[in-house]
Specification:
Blueprint (H helix, E strand, L loop, with lengths): L2 E4 L3 H18 L6 E6 L17 E6 L2 E7 L4 H19 L3 E3 L5 E4 L2 E4 L8 H19 L3
Parallel strand pairs: 1-2, 2-4
Antiparallel strand pairs: 3-4, 5-6, 6-7
Helix pairs in contact: 1-2, 1-3, 2-3
Bound molecules: zinc ion.
């Protein structure tokens, strides 16, 4: 399995790993290594590609590997939906739909530049993640593995 969970008990990690693995299979990204890190995410985190006000999760690419940060202080259901949401972003990065601009001035979505100053909720990759997150999470929770 390519999912690793950090900062959770072994029992919880196992459940989260199964959950995330189900989502990975549904998204067709089960061959990609993903580390899910539970942590305290500060509301004023100034990292450019995170929306300041509602940051409960984010996807980072560290040495070519994907790291999903999940706020450890939100409820389980929201955490599950956040993981589903962020895994959609992993897929978008992995298939090349979404790329960071080298100078951090924004992103490329399917080859088209989108500035960091763009409205968060209008970004195509966010619309896709929000559209898929609930169904992905619900399907993954209803599956045994
Ligand atoms: Zn997002």
């Amino acid at each position: 399995m390519n999912i690793t969970v950090r900062n959770k008990t072994e029992t919880a990690s196992q459940k989260i790993t199964n959950f995330a693995n189900n989502i990975a299979i549904e998204l067709g990204i089960e061959n990609i290594k993903i580390t899910i890190v539970y942590c305290i995410i500060l509301p004023n985190d100034s990292t450019k590609h995170k929306p300041n006000h509602t940051t409960i999760g984010s996807t980072e690419i560290v040495d070519g590997e994907y790291e999903i940060l999940v706020d450890d202080e939100i409820d389980n259901r929201t955490q599950a939906i956040t993981i589903a949401h962020e895994m959609v972003h992993v897929k978008q990065y992995a298939n090349g739909d979404l790329k960071h601009a080298d100078d951090e001035s924004g992103w490329f979505w399917k080859g088209e530049f989108v500035s960091v100053d763009s409205v968060y909720i209008e970004r195509e990759w966010e619309l896709e993640a929000y559209r898929l997150q609930f169904k992905l999470a619900a399907n993954a929770l209803s599956q045994k593995s």
